[in-house]
């Protein structure tokens, strides 16, 4: 059973290192980097280049099995994992990737714009995503007057309906505000769906991102920081996000 199968239809775990200066993207260094990953994780073997000069090493997903990929851009290194039974499972690939990055890609502790982990959750729903989200997590009282019937008698305006509702909240989780948490939502309901009232079954996405800004200290490491951020994010998911957002969304979808 996946780590968050009880509260979502799909779960994924992403990490990203953003740098100020370009990483080593010469052919020899890039090929050696990806070969090392493939030797350690032989199931991750499909290599290609996307538009925008991003190199990707990807594992083909079969059914509900775990799938993983590693992406390399000029100033960005990422990992992505779909599914996973434990936090330790999720950290195996990024642990290896960020351990190799200083040697193969010339990544430096001093050259860090940001380092982040994201816990992503998809919940499938056929209907108005914005209405569902507003019902479950609420809407600020000051905004509620914008919806419904026109406030002025005889107004030429029709019933006012929301087209997009994707709240985003950001928090500082340390004294100097260098480590931050961000909760955001992505809906797939647009003007066409609201106008026609025709809805396909599509995912509502919920994201929790824990990001730290600035250079790492000499006694820190990329691997250690990714693990710290991942454990902090997991605690936020377990103690806050699941009970306050994911489970209520799943329960409301089930009865609609």
Describe this entry's structure for a reader.
32% of the residues lie in helices and 28% in strands. The chain is globular, with a radius of gyration of 21 Å. It has 5 helices and 9 strands, in the order E-H-E-E-E-E-H-E-H-E-E-H-E-H. The model has no long low-confidence stretch (mean pLDDT 91). Helix 1 runs antiparallel to helix 2, helix 2 packs antiparallel against helix 5 and helix 3 crosses helix 5. It has 256 residues and is α+β, with helices and mostly antiparallel strands. Strands 2-3-4-5-1-6-9-8-7 form a 9-stranded antiparallel sheet.
Number of continuous helical runs: 5
Q: Pairing-aware structural class of the strands and helices?
A: alpha+beta
| Amount of helix | 25-40%
Mean of all residue-level pLDDT scores: 91
The low-pLDDT segments are none
Strand order of the largest sheet: 2-3-4-5-1-6-9-8-7
Shape: globular
Largest sheet properties: 9 strands, antiparallel
H and E string: EHEEEEHEHEEHEH
Number of DSSP-assigned strands? 9
Rg over C-alpha atoms, rounded to the nearest angstrom: 21 Å
């Amino acid at each position: 059973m996946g780590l968050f199968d009880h509260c979502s239809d799909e779960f994924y775990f992403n990490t990203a290192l953003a740098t100020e200066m370009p990483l080593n993207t010469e052919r020899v260094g890039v090929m050696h980097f990806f070969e090392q990953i493939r030797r350690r994780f032989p199931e991750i073997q499909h290599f290609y280049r996307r538009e925008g000069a991003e190199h990707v090493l990807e594992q083909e997903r079969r059914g509900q099995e775990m799938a993983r990929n590693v992406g390399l851009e000029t100033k960005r290194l990422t990992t992505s994992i779909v599914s996973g039974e434990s936090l330790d499972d999720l950290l195996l690939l990024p642990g290896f990737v960020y351990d190799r990055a200083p040697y193969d890609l010339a990544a430096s502790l001093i050259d860090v714009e940001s380092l982040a982990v994201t816990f992503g959750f998809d919940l499938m729903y056929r209907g108005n995503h914005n209405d569902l989200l507003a019902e479950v997590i609420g809407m600020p009282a000051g905004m509620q007057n914008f919806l419904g019937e026109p406030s002025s008698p005889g107004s030429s305006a029709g019933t006012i309906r929301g087209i997009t509702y994707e709240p985003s909240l950001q928090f500082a989780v340390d004294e100097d505000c260098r480590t931050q948490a961000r909760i955001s939502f992505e809906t797939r309901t647009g003007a066409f769906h609201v106008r026609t009232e025709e809805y396909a079954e599509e995912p509502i996405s919920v994201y929790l991102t824990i990001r730290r800004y600035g250079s790492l200290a000499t006694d820190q490491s990329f691997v250690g920081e990714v693990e710290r951020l991942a454990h902090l994010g997991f605690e936020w998911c377990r103690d806050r996000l699941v009970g306050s957002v994911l489970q209520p969304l799943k329960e409301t979808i089930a009865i609609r």
